[in-house]
Amino acid sequence: MKRLARRAATILWPAFLVAAVLEIAVFAFVDPVSLRLPLHTAQGAALPLSTTAIYSIAFLVFWACTSAACALTVLLDRSADDINAQPLAGG
Fold first, then answer.
1. Which of 59, 71, 69, 48 has its CA nearest to residue 19?
2. CB count, 10 Å around CB of 56?
3. What's the predicted TM-score (pTM) here?
4. How many CB atoms are located within 10 Å of the residue 66 CB?
5. Which of 66, 73, 70 has the alpha carbon at shortest distance from 22?
6. Cα–Cα distance between 4 and 74 in angstroms, integer?
7. Considering only CA atoms, which of 26, 14, 21, 25 is closest in space to residue 69?
């Protein structure tokens, strides 16, 4: 379990930091009140969310995307010995 916790921290902590920087960078230029739903009209409807909800959802999306990138990096960094030492169960 200790190894799994360390791997999770290796993935999630840098992703958290990058998501925080992305949040700052994006919302320095984008006003959440001005965001619109993409409808077929020239002006879409305003998002029916508070600014706090928009900030929160955006942060979670940024964190999920950067976590996926970090997880892929950890996966691709494994050596052949690491992979072959843990064969698939039931195979």
1. 59
2. 13
3. 0.76
4. 21
5. 66
6. 12
7. 14
